[in-house]
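Predict the holo structure. Ligand: coenzyme A.
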Amino acid sequence: MDYTIRTLTTKDIYEFMALTKYIDSETDFLGSAPTDPRPTQMQILSSLKSGRQLIMVASTKNGLIGHIGAFWRRGTGSRVKHCMNVGLGVAKDFWGMGIGNALMESIEVQAKQLGIVRMELEVMTHNEGAIALYKKRGFVVEGTKLKSIKIGDKYIDEHLMSKML
Ligand SMILES: CC(C)(COP(=O)(O)OP(=O)(O)OC[C@H]1O[C@@H](n2cnc3c(N)ncnc32)[C@H](O)[C@@H]1OP(=O)(O)O)[C@@H](O)C(=O)NCCC(=O)NCCS
């Protein structure tokens, strides 16, 4: 499987928006529902230009197949700017090919270059595949957020996981 991992560019925006919508529709493991309002083209462009977010994509000759984003959820104040939150998704047809791992590795390298010390994420406690990926990359479970997600009538717990870079 030939793919490259690279930073999202402004030329990718529409394809990126379609990919994230598509991945949201394929899985219930993400915090956003397919029907939720999505970031607009302008919001993505502005966050790319301002450097408020790192977005990397997995790209084949046929198009984008995965993405990962890291951002300063608590802002960039002097006491928290060393922390970033991360989230990723790969189109289902391409699961199990090492793409999630490669995306995570690339964003860790970029984050480290920016001086990030702590990467953190939330993952649903039954998302065994993602948890295995994060553990493989050295993330540890710090705790469990009870009922932090609601899908339909069902409440779901999430693990808070982190890795010191
Ligand atoms: C989680 C996700 C990103 C993994 O991407 P992927 O490209 O399939 O993962 P990789 O092929 O790089 O797998 C890397 C490692 O993760 C683990 N892993 C991945 N999927 C797994 C699964 N279904 N079961 C068990 N382990 C799994 C394995 O340890 C694997 O290493 P190995 O191949 O050496 O055994 C992908 O399944 C996905 O997009 N899921 C839907 C969205 C999602 O859950 N995002 C995370 C929200 S927190």
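The domain at 4-117 is CATH 3.40.630.30 (Aminopeptidase). The helical segments are 13-26, 41-50, 99-113, 128-136.
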